[in-house]
């Protein structure tokens, strides 16, 4: 459980994940693209808090997978 949120089961969701790097001046930011089996062509940018000391792509993975599947849109986290 992260921050008091209930655990989300996402094993049965058909959402593809693709890890990418977003280039900046002298470094890159890791990001993940979630693409559901059905998509409505829309995209959500999911920016989590943490101030670069708490939370990772993996810690928010279940929420992003759930949102992509439930909303039928692509998520970039």
UniProtKB/TrEMBL annotation:
Gene3D superfamilies on file: alpha/beta hydrolase
Alphabetized InterPro entries for the sequence: AB_hydrolase_fold (IPR029058), Lipase_GDXG_HIS_AS (IPR002168)
Gene Ontology terms for molecular function: hydrolase activity
Regions that span the bilayer: none
Similarity-based family: Belongs to the 'GDXG' lipolytic enzyme family.
Protein name listed in UniProt: Alpha/beta hydrolase
Gene source species: Lactobacillus kitasatonis DSM 16761 = JCM 1039
């Amino acid at each position: 459980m992260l921050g008091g949120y209930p655990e989300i089961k996402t094993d049965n969701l058909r959402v593809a994940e693709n890890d990418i790097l977003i280039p900046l001046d002298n470094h890159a930011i890791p990001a993940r693209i979630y693409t559901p089996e059905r998509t409505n062509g829309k995209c959500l940018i999911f920016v989590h808090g943490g101030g670069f000391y708490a939370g990772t792509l993996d810690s928010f993975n279940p929420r992003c997978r759930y949102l992509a599947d439930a909303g039928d849109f692509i998520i970039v986290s």
